[in-house]
Design a protein that fits this description.
Helix content: 40-55%
Distance between the termini: 21 Å
Number of helices: 3
Radius of gyration: 12 Å
Shape: globular
Largest sheet: 3 strands, mixed
Structural class: alpha+beta
Number of domains: 1
Length: about 80
């Protein structure tokens, strides 16, 4: 499982819904709709930008420390969060 897949799995454990949408390559991010945290991942963005956006969104969540995270995953999240 690569780092991006690990982030998606972590988001699931954190009860964050992932939505893959076309936003023109410069969008995406975390929102809260009807009490549910959701991350919009821009399918038009390149893989590095998607990874950076998701890492940043996860890194800003207070409950992230309640979850077991591999050292490599933590390093990526801290890098962009």
């Amino acid at each position: 499982m690569n780092i991006f897949e690990q982030m998606l799995e972590l988001a699931g454990r954190m009860n964050i819904q992932i939505r893959h949408v076309h936003l023109g390559g410069s969008g995406g991010g975390m929102v809260k709709l009807r009490g549910q945290r959701q991350v919009f991942i821009d399918q038009d963005a390149d893989a590095a930008d998607q990874l950076e956006m998701l890492a940043g969104a996860l890194g800003r969540e207070a409950d992230i420390d309640q979850h077991e995270i591999s050292p490599d995953l933590r390093q990526q999240i801290e890098r962009f969060g």
